[in-house]
Each structure stands twice: as C-alpha cells, then as structure tokens.
Specification:
With about 180 residues, the protein is mostly helical. Helix content is about 50%, strand content about 0%. It folds into two domains: about 1-105, Orthogonal Bundle (Recoverin, domain 1), CATH 1.10.238.10; about 115-150, no CATH class. The chain contains nine helices and two strands. The mean pLDDT is about 85.
C-alpha cells in the first residue's frame, strides 16, 4: 500500500478540493461538482478510458443513498473504483498507486477565470482626477471615495430652501418689526 506521507498528501488534496468554491465548507465532505473538478484537474478523466459520466456514476455508487456529498473514506473507495478503469494494463494495486500519484498534493486550478483588464480605456475611465460635475463630488483630492457623503445630498433642516440668499434672517426681521 502507499506510504503514510502519500496518504497525507491525498487527504490534503481531498480537503483543498472539498473547500473549493464554498465558503461554508469544512473540508470533510466533497460534493459532486468538486469531485468532478478533482478528476478533471488531476487528469483522472482522460476521455478514453474514464469520462465525466464514469466519474458521476462512481460518485453516485460510493455515496450514501440520501447524501449529496462523500466523505474521505468514500473518496478512497471511489478512487479504487476508477483505478482499474483508468490504468487498464496494470494490476489493481499498481493502478491504485498510480491514481494516488495523480491526485496527491494537487489543488484546484483556476484556468479560465476572468482576469482584470489593464487597458488605457479602463485606466482613463477609472481615473478619479478626470471626473467632472456631480461625479467629482464623490471623491476627495487623493482620489479616494467619500462614501455616503459623496453619494447623498446632506439635508440641513434650517427651514430654508437651498438657494435662498437671506437664510437665517427671519428672526432678525421679526425683532425689528416689533
């Protein structure tokens, strides 16, 4: 059988794929989507001997009837199911070791994830020093956003409309008339 360090690396790979894409995941259970991603990223799926359909069938076979996830023990059982199919010319033990070597120490890849565009047009549109009008009021001199103060017009409860020139003179008029 495999050495203890190999088993530890297998467990680490299992945990990394288990938490991939799920902020609430504990790393103790692997869902079907992440199982399929593990098989694809670790090159267990080769589109000849093992396909994504085979991976889904094995997942359904090893999980509990009502469960939607598999544990680490069920994960090992699933790899035992796929090993002879993936490595046809080898014995069961050799195939299992070969499939362990594919998985151990691996982690999810992020190929095809959208990257931040760095073009002149984006730089020009996000340069706050070039903003005019009401948008200019949303940023301070250093280019940082002012937050709520920049987005909302702050209301002064003086009783006067905003553009009234003689604001605050009403009380003085009443005193002069008496």
């Amino acid at each position: 059988m495999a050495e203890s360090t190999d088993i530890e690396q297998l467990l680490v790979a299992f945990q990394k794929f288990a938490i991939h894409g799920d902020t609430k995941a504990t790393g103790k259970e692997l869902n079907g989507k992440n199982w399929a991603k593990l098989c694809k990223d670790c090159k267990i799926i080769d589109s000849k001997n093992v396909t994504s359909t085979d991976v889904d069938i094995v997942f359904s076979k090893v999980k509990q009837r009502t469960a939607r996830v598999i544990t680490y023990e069920e994960f090992e059982q699933a790899l035992k199911e796929l090993a002879p199919k993936r490595f046809k010319g080898q014995s069961k033990e050799e195939a299992l070791l070969s499939i362990y070597k594919l998985v151990e120490g691996r982690e999810p890849t992020n190929v095809g994830v959208t990257k931040v565009a760095k073009t002149a047009a984006v730089d020009r549109l996000t340069d706050t020093s070039r903003y005019t009008g009401s948008h200019k009021e949303r940023f301070d001199e250093s280019g940082r956003g002012k937050g709520r103060e920049g987005r909302e017009e702050i209301v002064e409860n003086t009783g006067y409309v905003g553009a009234y020139k003689n604001a605050g003179t009403y009380d003085s008029k009443l005193k002069t008339e008496k």
